[in-house]
């Protein structure tokens, strides 16, 4: 019962992770955030493998899933520090998230709740010709705090997934040990006492 309950909970957590990271993948794609796109893609693959291992009693898959969650939590902590500009990090850097391929920022910068985007005409002389210059106002929440909230949710789900993954691996290993112990009695070829037949053969005489 405990293994079933733990596996069901872990499968539910994996499902929540898939839903949340797919939403994040769409948002990062709209914002041309290439580094998060690649990391999210790896996360989706590993979560699917972890879900498969949970359903099919494959402890190696679940162990690999748990190990990846440590990397995933570290990445999201970095994202939080990046948007909050901890230390020397700057969210205006083009190299970290976009590999210096574009000048785009988070999709939430222009599409956050309550945000009003107003094109500025004429654009400043220093603005690139292939980019528009806009003014953003009225946002109920700044985009960096929305990104921090998304990463915080991922850390929470990853922490829960890590705990339950370790729990499920422990239960599966214990069940495998118990099966090996029970099956050990059959390896000696033990056979119970057999019934002996009481039928006696008597000679038959043929008359001429």
TrEMBL record:
Compartments (UniProt record): Cell membrane
Domain of life: Eukaryota
Lipid bilayer topology: Multi-pass membrane protein
InterPro entries: Na/K-Atpase_Interacting
GTP-binding recorded as keyword: no
Gene Ontology, cellular component aspect: plasma membrane
This protein's name: Sodium/potassium-transporting ATPase subunit beta-1-interacting protein
Source organism of the structure: Gasterosteus aculeatus aculeatus
Organism classification: Eukaryota, Metazoa, Chordata, Craniata, Vertebrata
């Amino acid at each position: 019962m405990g293994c079933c309950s733990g596996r069901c909970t872990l499968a539910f957590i994996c499902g929540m992770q898939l839903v949340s990271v797919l939403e994040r993948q769409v948002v990062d794609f709209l914002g041309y955030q290439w580094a998060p796109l690649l990391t999210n893609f790896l996360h989706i693959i590993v979560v699917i493998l972890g879900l498969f291992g949970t359903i099919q009693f494959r402890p190696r898959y679940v162990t690999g899933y748990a190990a990846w969650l440590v990397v995933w939590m570290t990445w999201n902590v970095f994202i939080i520090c990046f948007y909050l500009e901890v230390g020397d990090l700057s969210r205006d850097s083009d190299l970290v998230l976009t590999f210096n391929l574009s000048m785009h920022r988070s999709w939430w910068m222009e599409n956050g709740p309550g945000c009003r985007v107003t094109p500025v005409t004429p654009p400043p002389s220093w603005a690139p010709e292939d980019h528009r210059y806009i003014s953003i106002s009225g946002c109920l929440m700044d985009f960096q705090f929305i990104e921090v909230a998304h990463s915080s949710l991922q850390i929470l789900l990853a922490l829960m997934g890590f705990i339950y993954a370790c729990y499920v691996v422990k239960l599966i290993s214990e069940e495998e040990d118990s099966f090996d112990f029970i099956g050990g009695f059959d390896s000696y070829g033990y056979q119970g006492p057999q019934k002996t037949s009481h039928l006696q053969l008597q000679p038959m005489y043929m008359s001429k």
